[in-house]
Specification:
Elements (H helix, E strand, L loop, with lengths): L1 E4 L5 E4 L4 E5 L4 E5 L5 E4 L6 E7 L4 E6 L3 E6 L4 E2 L4 E2 L11 E3 L2 E6 L3 E6 L5 E5 L4 E9 L2 E8 L11 E8 L5 E9 L2 E9 L5 E7 L8 E6 L2 E5 L16 E4 L4 E5 L4 E6 L5 E6 L4 E7 L3 E6 L2 E5 L3
Antiparallel strand pairs: 1-29, 2-3, 3-4, 4-5, 6-7, 7-8, 8-9, 8-10, 11-12, 12-13, 13-14, 15-16, 16-17, 17-18, 19-20, 20-21, 21-22, 23-24, 24-25, 25-26, 27-28, 28-29
């Protein structure tokens, strides 16, 4: 394991084939995947959270925990709009759907917001009465919206997940298509992206009644079950961090509860590599054919898979 930077970053993600985004306390630093050199640093925002990049328009949106954001044009790094207020805090970048000039993202109690990246205008475009919006996923030209019934008792188990479908129109409007009560699973834990930018839904199965989590991902118009090895039974403690999946390479990379960085086969128990880190890990990023980048409290490290 080799130390490649003294700087402290709190999260890392693959923005595109060309860029990696690193989140510091107040900035987003963009690094070239080809050269490893820093190509852009955002303006400062306190409690910087995440970033998302649109490959088609080459625009980068960075935002903080409170929901304030800046929009940039890469690779020159020109800021396109004044500071934007997204009207929603703690947004997961995996939950932002970006098509053309519009971004959609969920608000648990309110519905779905839409950001116009040309004007900076933010609107609440979908309201679902009596239901909380838990997750949204893009499937081709559709947005699948997962909700759960509102309840005054926060300890009451929500046994059903309700799925809506909206078609994305050219003008950014969402056209309602259908509502369906899901029978295959009862709880979505979180959504991540694999290293090839596929959305992966980690959910608890209600049919199989397994302990722990099942994997589903959105592909070709429907949700597919992926067999899950016993390591998923460790539950939700990953919570969208310290976990990387590459379905194409049959790899799952994570930091276990004992502080070991593990590379395993996705569909089996076989451990390919296991290293003791002895450091506090903020986040990791797996890059196929290269290895794993590890963000720690004393810098950035690289571990080769081979």
């Amino acid at each position: 394991m080799e130390k490649i930077s003294q700087k402290e970053f709190h999260s890392i993600k693959r923005l595109s084939k060309n860029y990696i985004g690193l989140t510091a306390e107040k900035t987003i630093n963009v690094v070239s995947c080809n050269t490893g050199k820093e190509v852009f640093v955002s303006d400062k925002l306190s409690n910087m959270s995440q970033s998302i990049y649109n490959q088609e328009t080459k625009k980068l949106l960075v935002y903080n925990i409170s929901g304030y954001a800046y929009l940039y044009q890469l690779p020159d790094g020109k800021r396109l709009l004044p500071k934007i207020y997204l009207k929603q805090s703690d947004i997961w970048s995996e939950q932002i759907i970006w098509e053309g000039d519009f971004c959609w993202y969920p608000s648990f109690r309110k519905g779905i917001y839409r950001l116009n990246t040309r004007t900076g205008e933010v609107e609440l475009v979908v309201k679902i009465k009596g239901e909380n919006v838990t997750h949204i996923v893009q499937d081709k030209n559709n947005i699948l919206v997962f909700t759960s019934p509102k309840t005054k008792n926060i300890y009451k188990q929500r046994e059903k997940v309700i799925r809506y479908s909206y078609r994305i129109e050219k003008d950014g409007e969402l056209k309602y298509q259908y509502r369906k009560q899901e029978e295959d699973y009862c709880k979505i834990c979180f959504i991540i992206e694999d290293v090839n930018k596929k959305k992966v839904i980690v959910a608890t199965s209600s049919k199989k009644r397994v302990e722990g989590d099942s994997l589903l991902y959105c592909s070709d118009g429907h949700l597919l079950n992926i067999p899950v090895n016993n390591r998923w039974k460790q539950g939700e403690w990953w919570y969208n961090r310290e976990l990387q999946i590459s379905e194409q390479d049959n790899r799952m990379i994570y930091v276990d509860e004992h502080g070991y960085l593990c590379i395993t086969e996705l569909y089996a128990e076989n451990i390919i590599k296991r290293n003791r880190l002895d450091k506090y890990v903020y986040d990791i990023l797996y890059i196929p054919t290269k290895g794993v980048l590890i963000l720690t409290d004393d810098g950035v490290y690289e571990m080769r898979e081979a």
